[in-house]
Amino acid sequence: MAHDTHIHVRSQAEFEYTKKKRAEEMRGHLATFAIMIFLTLIAFTMVTAGFSAYLIVPIVLLLAAIQVVLQLYYFMHMSGKGHGMVAFFMFCGMFVAFITILALVTIVWW
Amino acid sequence: MSSIAQKKGFGATIWDFMTTVDHKKIAILYLISGGIFFLIGGLEAMLIRVQLAKAGNDFLSAGTYNEIITMHGTTMIFLAAMPILLAFMNAIMPLQIGARDVAFPFLNSLGFWLFFFGGIFLNLSWFMGGAPDAGWTNYASLALASEGKGIDFYSLGLTISGFGTLIAGINFLVTIINMRAPGMTYMRMPLFTWTTFVASALILLAFPPLTVGLFFMVFDRMFDANFFAVEMGGNTIIWEHLFWIFGHPEVYILILPAFGIFSEIFAIFSRKRLFGYTALVFATILIGFYGFMVWAHHMFTVGLGPTANAVFALATMIIAVPTGIKIFNWLLTIWGGNISFSVPMIYAVAFIPSFVAGGVTGVMQAIAPLDYQLHDSYFIVAHFHYVIVGGVVLAILAGTHLYWPKMFGTMLSEKLGKWTFWFFFIGFHLTFFIQHFLGLMGMPRRVYTFGADQGWDLFNAISSVGALFMAIGVIILLVNVVLTSIKNERVGNDPWGDGRTLEWAIASPPPFYNFAQTPLVRGLDSVWIEKMDGNKKGMIFAEPLGDIHMPNGSIIPFVISLGMFIASFGALYFLDGDKPWALAVLIIGLGITFGSMLLRSLKDDLGFHITKAELLEDAKGGNTDGH
Amino acid sequence: MMKGIKKWRLFALMTTLLVFLAGCGREEISTLIPAGKVAQDQFNLLILSSIVMLFVIIVVSIIFVLAIVKFRRSKMGEDMIPEQVEGSARLEFIWTAVPIVLLLILAVPTVYSTFDLADVTSMDVQAEDGNSTHLTVNVTGKLYWWEFEYPEQGITTAQELVVPTDERVYFNLISADIKHSFWIPSIGGKLDVNPENVNTFYLEFDQESSELEDGVFYGKCAELCGPSHALMDFKVKSVDREEFDQWVTAMQAEPTPAEGALAQQGEELFGQDGLACISCHATSGAVTASGVGPNMATFGDRNRVAGYLEHNEENLKNWIADPQEYKPGNLMPDAASLNGGNELTDQELDALAAYLMGLSVEE
Amino acid sequence: MDINQKYTPQSWPEHPETATMEGKNKFIGFWLLLAAETVTFASLFATYLALKDKGPSGMEFSAAGLYELPLVFAMTMILLTSSLTSVYAMYHMKNHNFKAMQAWLGITVLLGATFLGLEIYEFNHYVHLGFGYTNSAFSSAFYTLVGTHGAHVLFGLSWFIALMLRNAKRGLNMYNAPKFYLASLYWHFIDVVWVFIFTVVYLMGVIG
Ligand code: HEA
Ligand code: HEA
Ligand SMILES: [Cu+2]
């Protein structure tokens, strides 16, 4: 642990390059955000518009799922380098979450 | 017990342990407190068996009996078996992967103290108006109706110790993911490390539902919430689901590390590489995975409907396959080996038929329609003691003998060890084998007495005699520990002579900084590889000798946990009205906890360095504890 | 049909074997001596699975014993280093495949039986006269006693279930308080008695209980429900259909007044002007309301006092005087508290006992 | 690692949050905690769904009649935006621009606090309608689920504030960079949970 931080000073070109890359990434995040707002709008409008519940429920759930994927993969960088184990455990967690919810909505009230 | 104890005064030793963040010392703390809880749980088991020794016995009253079985189950599972396994994980796993310490030494200590205070809190219920009495499963309708504070002790105590366990689980996972020595790929990790990994993953994902369930329980009982209050629309089956979503993975949290310990033992004492290492690893992962999909097999009689019952029955049966893979790979490991029957190996060998017997009754229970008969009968009690005592407890006893030299630098007596084994093993089968038939003969579990007219007298009496044998075995073990510590004959790195993994390449007990130089791992069973290559040291190094960075000890984890402990008493009583002090206690307790957390985050604690010179000095003097 | 009988012979053989092994549980209560279709099905599953499990254990044991006998160090020599075998794909395949096959053998009857035993579709089937073709009993679990209501017959009894033999009897189960579980081991597996929902299943009684030594099957509560969980027993009388119908008729009739001075004094004490026991305990079988305490209409016919004590006046009097002593945590007030704080005299207890023992619908 | 080591944007590593061993450990450990939190919230959601609209006979409240969508919509927008502002903060953290990071974090905190205020207002409103915590199984489950989320928001806010104050004078270094990063991860996770809350509780509640 003693030797794990050696300081690496980047060349100006390297530095400019990463900076540009980051700025681009940030624009991507802005777009992601716009999509999330848009999805939320759709969800709320659908409900207020009063379509049939059979139509709305699957769609709003799908929209929520998309939003979550956006959050996890873009804002939280879950696809980034060094996130292999992270993704694995998050998926395990989601799996357990899923069966828990499935069980309690199906086999509690008979 | 160790050399440190003799050099320092008693007070200083205590302080040392209270502030330690060293995984090896924390392991000792886990072992001692888990051991004491095991004795308490065992004592409760003896009381159960005395009460049931004859029909119509009135040794214990009905209410007391329910408290005792509840505390027996809870203590054994949460406060004895799991912590003792955590002790071995702490002591051995970082050494096996060649790490300097665990990923979060501070949290490691916090995890221990939370478990410890949670356990003490739970057991104090005996002296403060009655222990919990709704069974270790604490089913909601009974728990809500239970008078007194017992159930609140249960909920709060398990919440606290549960947080401790969760922290330990995260800590081990990160350690294994990040801190492996160079060359220690996942598929070169010793099996005990693998099982630690999977068990920790189960802890990570199984404890949250329990915590949530316990919160509901607290809210329902103390704040008039209605999660389980039927007349207010609540539903008690929710508790059953949450409990078992936790509860079934929990039994694999117990058995997987036990499998790990036995895997090490089979290889060492057969002097042979584990047969089908890859299969063993994947079987471990599969068991962990399936473990989450079968919980409703504890609820076959609840009335979930035939579809749910059939699905869960089939899912449960599947677990027999990976478990069988393990059993047969172990058999093939000893097959063609050169078996030395030292005490750990005797346990390992005895484990196989015992556990298989328990496992196959598990599969019988998985047959849902048959389980309608077996459920909540003594057949179940027989099943789970066969897997737990025949699996987990045998592993704990084996591990205690196997790793005692590594933890304390001296060997437990082989002779007394064999006496313990025979008493315990015979007693175990005597106690529990016959309980299968009691169950089939119609005896329900959790009955404080039974009438003489039902034909269960003889078998119960035999069962109680068996328990006595087990107690004698345990007492011999205690004698063994005391005598060994008095004699204190020091041993070298590899006292069993056939060590295969990294923990056997380091001094017993290891210096507080573990490996002075991080080892380089060249394959599975790295020490064995080096030995076969004629490298006497048992390892080669991945780095030159240099300064080592170490974390400082800290009393803060202790204080944080103490604060929670104090606050729990306040939480227990502050709604009572007649106890105005309770609110103050609650606030003071929380104040201590949050204050010390704040202190921790404000004060930078950057640790210290051991210099190369000191390390060289150490190596020369053979001084192992670094002081 | 022939084939079926042959199968039964094999099972009978195994049965004797197992019963022998089990040191013969009592036939009133042992799952090993099934006395009805459901228990028989479950027993067959037990035998089938035991055979499979025995096979597994034997295979493991053989390998195991051979290994530890053949490869001990005393034989192999102190210094011998065994070959470090990595594994074998073929063996892995075998011990994956064989257990799967064994499990499939178990899986088929498991699924079949799970659905079969849960099949209550014919419960509400009605015969031409508008009555349903099968008997239905509503069971309510209460703190340490059982109530059995026969909705179509309009009668209620407690603690002792009376059922006809050789037909399907359907049960609706619900709890009035804490979760219980309804179990008659020799007749069939248990089903939980939850506070929030009605559970339904069926049982069949193939044997008349009068053939048993004790004259009744034993039933149990199988789910921890408080201090007296162990004592929450009930009994089952299975009688042929004719006798059952007679019993129903007798239950529906007005109870006959108590005979004899002592019993009449007891009736007085039991009534509103005495201790008011009657406000919790009905004494007529012809009620459908859910009672606070057990219905006493059949008390004299019972096999046990309080579900588990021997059926005699002594126990009855002890029980009335101090119910908490016999079933801790039960909801019956002790006699003194009903009597303005005074203990009942022996004479009063005698009277109550005489009255209660006289309550009967069987002749 | 030396806590007093000063960095320039040039010497600041590309992934400061995982550049040290401590950072790496914290990073993985925190994600694991989030996996556990996922299961925690799943248990709460599952219970809520099982108990939705369940209460004593004659209960006057139901999800369809109770919830007020405009308020929830406003809360959603605010929280989503705060997620974006915390992304901005991390953007500047990686560029080693401490001031900008603090500023964006400040905005995040303000948005979060507004959200929390609205939630408290909402709860208060329901309670005044007579929909108290102990009213029914439904009310207990609702308040516990949404309230647990609220508690997470509160904790996230305190965390941000503590970090901002503690490091105001020190600036960014390798010791606190992982902490800032984790706090922002936590914030995103809170947002993820909220997405499900507004979908499953409110939207699906309103349509009945
Ligand atoms: C360490 C603990 C542990 C372990 C490992 C297990 C392992 C298993 N358990 Fe057990 N169980 C408990 C602890 C454990 N259990 C406890 C504590 C309870 C009761 C809780 C309570 O109610 O208080 C319980 C209860 C319990 C029930 C509920 C019974 C009831 O209450 O009605 C069931 C039902 O399916 C079950 C099944 C199984 C199965 C199928 C396995 C399997 O994992 C076993 C697999 C192993 C083998 C099968 C043997 C080896 C395999 C071979 C040699 C291959 C060939 C085998 C075949 C083809 C069969 N268990
Ligand atoms: C890890 C788990 C574990 C372990 C190791 C054990 C170990 C034992 N258990 Fe336990 N048991 C459970 C977990 C465990 N049990 C659970 C979960 C339940 C269900 C509870 C419930 O229904 O809610 C249960 C229930 C249970 C019952 C059923 C009670 C009932 O349903 O009414 C019985 C009855 O025989 C029993 C017996 C025993 C015995 C004889 C041992 C023996 O193996 C114990 C051996 C140990 C000793 C004998 C130590 C003795 C020590 C001394 C004598 C020294 C004392 C001295 C000092 C304190 C200094 N257990
Ligand atoms: Cu299980």
Q: Strand fraction band of chain D? A: under 5%
SS field, number of helical segments of chain D? 6
Oligomer: heterotetramer
Average of the residue pLDDT scores of chain D: 91
- CATH-assigned homologous superfamily of chain D: Cytochrome c oxidase, subunit III, four-helix bundle
> How many β-strand runs of chain D?
0
What is the first-to-last residue Cα distance of chain D? 56 Å
Note the main sheet of chain A: none
Largest sheet of chain D: none
Mean pLDDT of chain A: 84
Summarize the helix and strand pattern of chain A as letters.
HHH
* Backbone CA Rg of chain A: 21 Å
| Bound small molecules, deduplicated | heme-A, copper (II) ion
Please give the share of residues in helix of chain A: over 70%
From the spread of the alpha carbons, the general shape of chain A counts as flat
CATH architecture of chain D: Up-down Bundle
Account of the protein in words:
- The complex is a heterotetramer of chains A (110), B (627), C (363) and D (208).
- Chain A is mainly α.
- Chain A has a domain at 12-79.
- In chain A, 76% of the residues lie in helices and 0% in strands.
- Chain A contains three helices and no strands.
- Chain A has helices at 12-49, 53-75, 84-106.
- Chain B is an all-alpha fold and 627 residues long.
- Chain B has one domain (10-554, 605-621): Up-down Bundle (Cytochrome C Oxidase, Chain A), CATH 1.20.210.10.
- Chain B contains 21 helices and four strands.
- In chain B, strands 1-2 form a two-stranded antiparallel ribbon. In chain B, strands 3-4 form a two-stranded antiparallel sheet.
- Mean pLDDT of chain B is 92; it is low at 1-5 and 623-627.
- In chain C, helix 6 (261-270) crosses helix 10 (346-358).
- Chain D is an all-alpha fold.
- Chain D has a single domain (33-52, 65-207), classed as Four Helix Bundle (Hemerythrin (Met), subunit A) (Up-down Bundle), CATH 1.20.120.80.
- Chain D is 74% helix and 0% strand.
- The model of chain D has no long low-confidence stretch (mean pLDDT 91).
- Classes of the chains: A mainly alpha (110), B mainly alpha (627), C alpha+beta (363), D mainly alpha (208).
- Chains B and C meet through helix 4, helix 6, helix 9, helix 10 and helix 11 of B and helix 2, helix 4, strand 7 and strand 9 of C.
- One heme-A binds at residues 39, 42-43, 45-46, 48-49, 69-70, 72-73, 76-77, 81, 135-137, 381, 385, 388-389, 392-393, 431, 445-447, 467, 470-471, 474 of chain B.
Write the layout of secondary structure elements.
The complex is a heterotetramer of chains A (110), B (627), C (363) and D (208).
Chain B: H1 3-7, H2 10-19, H3 23-51, H4 62-96, H5 105-124, H6 140-145, H7 150-178, H8 191-222, H9 236-270, H10 277-290, H11 306-318, H12 320-334, H13 343-366, H14 368-374, H15 378-408, H16 414-440, H17 457-487, E1 519-520, H18 526-532, E2 540-541, E3 548-550, H19 556-573, H20 581-602, E4 608-610, H21 612-621
Antiparallel strand pairs in B: 1-2, 3-4
Helix pairs in contact in B: 3-4, 3-5, 3-17, 4-5, 4-7, 4-9, 4-15, 5-7, 5-19, 7-8, 7-19, 8-9, 8-10, 9-13, 9-15, 10-12, 13-15, 13-16, 15-16, 16-17, 19-20
Chain C: H1 2-21, H2 37-70, H3 73-76, H4 89-117, E1 135-142, E2 145-150, E3 155-158, E4 160-164, E5 168-175, E6 180-184, E7 188-193, E8 199-204, E9 217-221, E10 234-239, H5 241-252, H6 261-270, E11 304-305, E12 309-310, H7 313-321, H8 323-326, H9 335-338, H10 346-358
Helix pairs in contact in C: 2-4, 6-10, 7-10
Chain D: H1 21-51, H2 63-66, H3 69-94, H4 98-129, H5 137-167, H6 177-206
Helix pairs in contact in D: 1-5, 1-6, 3-4, 3-6, 4-5, 5-6
The complex binds heme-A (HEA) (2 copies) and copper (II) ion.
